[in-house]
Amino acid sequence: MQTNKQLGLSSQPTPHAFYFVMVDTRQHWDLVYGSKAADAVSWYQRHPDTSLAFIADSQLPYDTPLIDVGGGASTLVDHLLDAGYTDISVLDIAAHALSRSQARLGADKAPRVHWLVDDVTRFAPSRRYALWHDRAVFHFLIDDASKAAYLAALRRSLVSGGTAIVATFAADGPMRCSGLDVARYDAEALHACFGDEFERMASGRDVHVTPWGAEQAFTYLRLRKRQ
């Protein structure tokens, strides 16, 4: 079993009120991943085609540092490794989810990834990234304080001129997910959350089909952090 330090878990103290919110959120997601198979959750994708296409369209070198926020048990990291990317970090609040990805990748591939257990809204990166990918984290942040904390973490993490790819439920997407309320966005509303500091480069719509056949509409946005 890996230690918190090996997993990237910060040991810095936090304000008490926010700490309890963080713990509740972490427990929620650990319970989700501890009680369901990886391919039995609504967001599971065997092959994340839309995310991979948006990443490829960014035309970044294969050794560029990139981070998958909320990557958890997602298979995106598998495909990025297979595509030739060599500097990948995966961040998730649920250690259980990351452990599943590590087990799936095995002893050969898992050590090639930087695994980070943290809440993105309090993430203090030790380095900066050229690409930030987030499919289905931002839409769980439904209050202004959480959104502001996320954006602060993004600014700290992304280099000038760096790319952010963010996907949320679309305006006609689900109103709740995994027992939690979510925010829904079209491309214009989502870009407005990030402000003029981020230039809108591309957007798209994806209809995700859950493992049990339900359709969920997503909005994708590719942004560039201005110099």
What's this entry about, in short?
By secondary structure, the protein is α/β, with parallel strands linked by helices. The chain has helices at 4-7, 16-35, 49-57, 76-83, 95-109, 144-157, 187-194, and strands at 66-69, 88-92, 113-117, 129-135, 158-169, 176-177, 180-181, 198-209, 215-225.
Structure notes:
With 227 residues, the protein is an alpha/beta fold. It has a single domain (14-225), classed as Vaccinia Virus protein VP39 (Rossmann fold). The protein has helices at 4-7, 16-35, 49-57, 76-83, 95-109, 144-157, 187-194, and strands spanning 66-69, 88-92, 113-117, 129-135, 158-169, 176-177, 180-181, 198-209, 215-225. Strands 3-2-1-4-5-9-8 form a seven-stranded mixed β-sheet, sandwiched between helices. It has a two-stranded antiparallel ribbon with strand order 6-7. The longest helix is centred in the N-terminal third of the chain and has 20 residues, at 16-35. The protein starts with a helix and ends with a strand.
- Main sheet: strand order: 3-2-1-4-5-9-8
CATH superfamily caption = Vaccinia Virus protein VP39
Distance between the termini: 42 Å
Number of helices: 7
> Can you identify the CATH class?
Alpha Beta
In the residues, how many domains can be counted? 1
Question: How many DSSP-defined strands?
Answer: 9
Nearest-integer average pLDDT:
87
Proportion of β residues? Answer: 25-35%
Low-confidence blocks of residues: 1-23
**Architecture (CATH level 2) name:** 3-Layer(aba) Sandwich
Query: What is the CATH topology descriptor?
Result: Rossmann fold
Rg over CA atoms:
16 Å
Sheet bearing the most strands, described?
A: 7 strands, mixed
Class based on secondary structure composition and strand pairing: alpha/beta
